[in-house]
What we know:
The model has no long low-confidence stretch (mean pLDDT 89). Helix 3 (46-58) runs antiparallel to helix 4 (62-74), helix 4 packs parallel to helix 6 (94-106) and helix 5 runs antiparallel to helix 6. The protein has 113 residues and is mainly alpha-helical. It starts with 7 loop residues before the first helix and ends with a helix. 63% of the residues lie in helices and 0% in strands. It has seven helices and no strands.
Amino acid sequence: VLLFGSFRESQSAEDTFEIKDTTALAFEALLKYIYTGKLRICSYSETDALDILGLAHKYRFELLEESISAYLKTSLTIENVSLIYDVSLLYSLSALTTICQEFLDLNAEQVMK
């Protein structure tokens, strides 16, 4: 109805629309999740997964947010733990924050290099 009905969006002569505050890939992934209820987060890069997590948080897709957080917990490395920790704090993901803190404690010397 939105794109084919009497709404302004369906009457637009433009074939494109601007996506703000995210990447096209992350937005496409969210749409895929909305329509199918599934998303293979492991098939995305870490950066893309974080972008998708941001959208999941913004639009309150809690199950998707939890799934991405669980994936990120298993993907922690010396190189990415600081970024993932920052994101966990930004989105108040306490379980992910705790795992990051534990990882940082165990690997503090290597992370600080």
